[in-house]
Structure formats: C-alpha cells, structure tokens
Design brief:
This protein is of the alpha/beta class. It contains six helices and eleven strands. It starts with a strand and ends in a 6-residue tail after the last helix.
C-alpha cells in the first residue's frame, strides 16, 4: 500500500494475523510491514503508521546502514566509536612529551593520547584499548557466573575473530572476541553465559539451550542485538 504523510510517500505491506494489536516491523531490506488483527480498518492502520513515523524512519535508516556494511572510520576528533553499547566521540591529544600512548574514557569521550598524529597508530591504540577492556569485562563476568557451574574454565583469552563472539573447546578454554567491549553489558553477559554453558554441553542441543535459558531467560534479545548491531562494532 502507499500513503502520503507530511509530504512523504510511505510504502508498506499489511499482513493480517490472529492478534489483538497492530505491530510494525522493518525487514532486512528496510521495508515496512504492518501486522494487524483481521478486519482492522485501513484508517486505523494509517493512524498507527503516522503516530510512529519518526521511529520508523530511524529504524529504516539503521537497516540500510546495516546493509551497506561497516563504514570506513575516520581517525579524527569527534568520530564516534562504540563502548558498552553507547557511542563516544574521540578526542586526539597530541603531545611529543607523552610517555605512554593510550586511550582513556573520560567525560563521555574517548581521549587518545599520542606523541604525533598517525591514523594507523590511533587505530592500533583503539584496538588495544578494546582488547584490554574486553579481557577485564569478560573475566569479571565469568567470575560472577562461576557459582552456577561445577567446572571452571582452564583459561580465558581474547582473540580477533571475524565469525564468532566466543568459543569453548573440549579443554574448557574460553575465547572471546575483542569487539565485545563495544556491546552493552547485558550482551557481554549473554556471550559469557553461552560459552560457560558449553562447559556442560559442548553442542547446541536442547539441554544446552535450556541451561542458557535458565540463567538468562531473555537471551534471544541479546542475540538479536548482536545480529542487528555487529556491522557497526568496528574500528
């Protein structure tokens, strides 16, 4: 269907379901899909669309960015990077007398202290920061959840993986992706719980998912966040 609102053309599909309220979803291509109870008048559907138009536009833009994949970062002041689910601008502090080049989170920005400006140096400092923060965050959460498990991990490592957020091998060695420091704390918790549950069940059978669900009933929401946001977890 097509509807004009505030001078903009809204194209959307309607799917009538056995439900009691109207829902709006954005598919993986940025298309609007309205889920409505059977026999819902068109006028009511349009009212709901118009009432939620601002949020719909935000989600469409987010989906289209996701389809484009990771965007090339610019290593200059005010470029924004994720940390614990929030985005922070960077500020580059250049001083030839700096003895320790580093990244610090201060006053809602990521301060990058360097002797001299260099894109590759700034990128590597940011990666090192995320490695360090991921290790600290993961180790703290493993310790927090350990009381739920008889087995302890043999080791905890942070790695650079393009395909996994974490792994657990048959020797109970846990590995986690350094990009996890960019995720919200509760999403980090999910990945930690997921891998620790593999110390009990090495595969993804029903018993495994029951254990995950017991420790984290809303784990599917965390999986969804990773699925929708992983494209922007980059330096």
């Amino acid at each position: 269907m097509i509807h004009t609102y505030l001078g903009e053309t809204i194209r959307f599909d309607i799917k009538y379901k056995n439900r009691t309220s109207i829902g709006i979803t954005i598919d993986g291509y940025g298309n609007i899909v309205v889920l409505a109870p059977k026999k819902t008048p068109d006028e009511r559907v349009l009212q709901v669309l118009e009432a939620n138009w601002d949020q719909i536009q935000i989600k469409i833009k987010e989906m289209k960015k996701r389809m484009d994949g990771p965007q090339e970062k610019v290593y200059e002041n005010n470029e924004r990077f994720l940390y614990l689910g929030n985005t922070y601008p960077i500020k580059i502090v250049q001083d030839i007398n700096i003895t320790h080049e580093r990244v610090e989170l201060e006053e809602k920005m990521l301060l990058i202290y360097v002797k001299q400006f260099d894109n590759e140096k700034i990128k590597q400092l940011l990666k090192r920061y995320y490695y360090q923060r991921s290790k600290a965050l993961v180790e703290e959460r493993v310790s927090f959840y350990q009381s739920n498990f008889k087995t302890k991990p043999r080791s905890i490592r942070i790695t650079d993986s393009k395909t996994t957020w974490g792994t657990c091998d048959s020797n109970f060695q846990l590995t986690f992706n350094w990009r996890l420091a960019m995720a919200p704390a509760e999403v980090i918790d999910y990945v930690v719980v997921h891998e620790m549950c593999h110390m009990v069940h090495l595969n993804h059978d029903r018993s495994f998912w029951r254990l995950v669900g017991k420790l984290m009933p809303d784990y599917k929401e965390k999986e969804r966040w990773l699925a929708l946001s992983s494209w922007k977890m980059t330096v």
